[in-house]
Specification:
This protein is mainly α. The chain contains 16 helices and no strands.
């Protein structure tokens, strides 16, 4: 499978999953469970970690990787004192059901073919060494096509994300170095990456470590070696994410990309997703 196609499918599916963390329906469901909603992090950690069960901060920090452990500890295991993981999982499906049903331009009744194809890809994903993908893949499939599509997008994005962490580890980039090196190539601003909770001292220390390896210049920008390393990380991430699409096949993968256009535009058109993000979607 051409890695350009693999990257395209990520760009198409990522917004379909990520709207979970921004939709007003999500915050309404979070408030009903008892989470604070003045910022998105209390419910974010609950929504994303719930498939793992009532795990502790160390396990979540390991699986999420780029978040400061101190930030994770502020929200986990507090998340499970507010609501049990099973209740969180039910609420996130309710939120996505409500969001997609009212989304202008998204015909939820016309999503069955796309949902079937995306589910086939998700079910083809190999989960060894991929804890978040495995946890989401173990959940029962919902009945409604738009929720099947959302869950498949979730499994596939976590499958890719787990593989990305393997690529970062192979490149010798620890969690904060992964962010500093990504900011250095212009994937997003330093301010955007600050949302992951690292202190200014931790960020500066990581930059110094990268500078000692010849990866970051004095101005904070990436050197040629730094750009080459990040390009290798992204290339390897695409390769590690290719399995489900290779099983689905070029024809059906291309068909899915066509079918996703309308709902993808509708999600982006909602204006809920930030223009700049820590994943570098559209930048790398």
């Amino acid at each position: 499978m051409d890695v350009a196609r693999v990257r395209q499918m990520w760009h198409l599916l990522e917004p379909l999953h990520a709207v979970l963390y921004y939709a007003p329906e999500t915050f309404e469901e979070a408030a009903a469970l008892g989470y604070a909603t003045d910022e998105r992090w209390p419910s974010y950690f609950a929504w994303r970690a719930a498939p793992l069960g009532p795990v502790g901060a160390g396990q979540v920090a390991s699986a999420f990787y780029s978040f400061s452990p101190a930030m994770v500890e502020r929200h986990v295991p507090e998340a499970w004192r507010v609501a049990a993981p099973g209740d969180v999982l039910a609420a996130r499906l309710r939120a996505m059901d409500r969001f997609y049903r009212r989304l202008p331009g998204a015909d939820v009744d016309a999503l069955k073919e796309a949902a079937d194809l995306a589910r086939r890809a998700a079910e083809a994903a190999v989960h060894a060494g991929r804890p978040l993908a495995a946890a989401n893949a173990a959940l029962p499939w919902p009945d409604a096509p738009h929720l099947v599509l959302w869950q498949a997008a979730t499994v596939l994005r976590e499958h890719r994300g787990d593989g990305h962490l393997a690529a970062l580890l192979a490149a010798g980039l620890d969690p904060v170095e992964a962010l500093v090196s990504f900011a250095a190539v212009g994937a997003a601003s330093t301010e955007t990456f600050a949302s992951r909770g690292w202190s200014a001292d931790e960020w500066a220390a990581a930059r110094e470590r990268l500078a000692a390896r010849g990866l970051v210049a004095a101005d904070g920008g990436a050197t040629d070696a730094g750009r080459a390393l990040r390009a290798e990380v992204e290339r390897r991430t695409d390769e590690l994410a290719a399995g489900p699409w290779a099983v689905l096949g070029e024809h059906d993968t291309a068909r899915l990309s066509e079918l996703l256009g309308g709902v993808w535009l509708a999600v982006l058109g909602s204006g809920l997703l930030p223009r700049e993000n820590t994943l570098g979607v559209g930048k790398v």
